[in-house]
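Re: the pair you flagged

First of the two:
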Amino acid sequence: MRKRFAVRWRAAAAVGAVTALLAMAPALGAQDVRAKEDGSAIIGLDIFDPAGAPFTLTFRSLDPGEVLLARLKEGTPFLRVMVSLGAQSRVLEAPSGDSSGSPMALLGIDLGTEPQPLKLKAKGWRADGTEESFEWLIVVTPKEFPQTRLQVAPAMTHPPAERLESIRRESVLVAEILGRVSADWLAEGAFQSPLPDHKPFPNFGQQRVYNKTVASVHSGVDISAPRGTRAVAPNSGRIVLANKLYYSGWTVIIDHGRGVFTYCCHFDKVLVKRGESVKKGQAIAEVGSTGRSTGPHLHWSVRILSARVDPFSLAALPL
């Protein structure tokens, strides 16, 4: 069943203002199947494309943990458009010879977002210096996530006292890395699974209880594979962490630019180094079971700015 949401649109030009209330159809004006350039299909995506807006949004749903692709419309009179969703802001720019900007950008609805209306704002700048502002309300829909109980080594729920400081430093380091926004877009085309030949568990957002005492939310997806299976980069980028951490074991974080990071962990062996550039599909590590793990598998998570999102929501988008 398709979701409905109401959209409020405000366009304020240099002279005069117009206000309209639009009620979108159940399919949001989208098609369930959109053709790619190579003739294949994109299944189950919606496209938000209200009349007069300078950009479109493509997404699977408006659930917590979903990714939205904003793309500047061809032929728009705006050279530059700033799109904001909650605290996230992205700039879309028409291609030009002297600009490093991009006509597309990614926004994320964080995993922990409660069902609520969120303001989607945009401001566009024309070549003649005039500006125009837009505003919509999109409704984040409720979603139920799975629950499970897991048994791990006692030290993975109650670390020894001598490790607490190093665990704290690791947490600070990862937060600092994920907070650095690179200006350039380093990815190439669509994202892919780091283990494309193996089936993922449907456990994004899973509510977990370890050893009946420690609760956590699983912000990624687990993919099981035999020990030693080589995992590949989900897309091109730069390695910003390749180290062993207490809870995630051997871990690789890739910066794909503009605040988009992929995080893969629990490896037995890492094949890349910090600062190295990698191409999509390049081997980065070997599957293992290090850190807080119950068997050989890979944990794959994605951050878009501060938003924790489903990696396969990102992989579904036609970048």
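Second of the two:
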Amino acid sequence: MTLDKATAKSEGLDRLKRYLLSGHQTRDKLKEILVIDRTTLWRWLKSLEKAGYVISEDAQQRLYIDPATCPTYLKLSQNESVLLMLALRLFQQYNDKPQRTAVELLHKLGVQLQAGVAPAVGPHVVAMAEAQRAALTGEHTDYERTIEAVSTAWLQSRKLQIRYRPRHAHRPFDEVFHPYMIEPSAIGRGTYIIGYSELVDRLRVRKLERIKRTPMVLDETFSIPETFDVQRLLAGAWGIWFDVDERPTTVTLRFAADVADRVEETRWHPSERKVRDADGRLMWTAEIDAVDEMLPWIRGWGADCEVLEPQAVRDALIANLRRQAHLYGLHTDSAPSDGPDLHLLNELFGA
């Protein structure tokens, strides 16, 4: 989205102030980072000085602001700083697309640490952010434009015109969407919006990575119904997916004793229940919406995880094993079975 001039200047001044707080900068470097010309840089420097910031110049004609001459840029406690750092790094690691906003926020955090609670650590965080910024391309990506548009619509309660292609669909469709909530999914490594679709007149989930072009933020606003309860909706969701029309499905898995400790140390779902049997195996039960979404997670445990119920999921895993056996040229009887093919499991996973 194109920012209006006042907003662009405000954000530009904010970034200029932060760069000057983070260390000594040449004028050429500042123009390059901010993508502005010499005249604009001069005007912005004057604006900062009028706002009370003392801009100094060293022997190499590099500009800087001494943190001691101004208030702390971002007021966070030590624990808040560490938590924000971990959250940002986790977001950057699971999201394989460049995120200028995440880079700038990381830089802000580094400046805060450097000027306040951790002066020895801050420069390393600043250097990390600057290295990430250098790796960014000049143009915003389609995904960046998409998340910026979605963010604007969500924060301002404005409707979105989107073109969306579901995972199993051959063609995308157009709809007007009311974004009620933005939610990340660590399991699927994606970002989702939960809201109301005018096309189907129901609550729906849309994955940002499946939006096929930059959404249009409409002038028309919407109101979130008082009955909207995101906690209730997500209570039975695996990751982010949920179905408001169907009751959750009880899923029961049996994990081998070798991996039971690993399964127990993580809370995989809000409704999960874990019980050990006499042999040290772990019985895991949860109420799940959209069970298909958890199949990759189940398959990831290999022969250390057996599906006990529902039978449809058990059958789907057995069919998948048979396809794997065929793919790798392993012998397997194609006749249906009420239980897992132990010979096949041994061949595939060495169990």
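Residues 249-349 form one domain.

-B.
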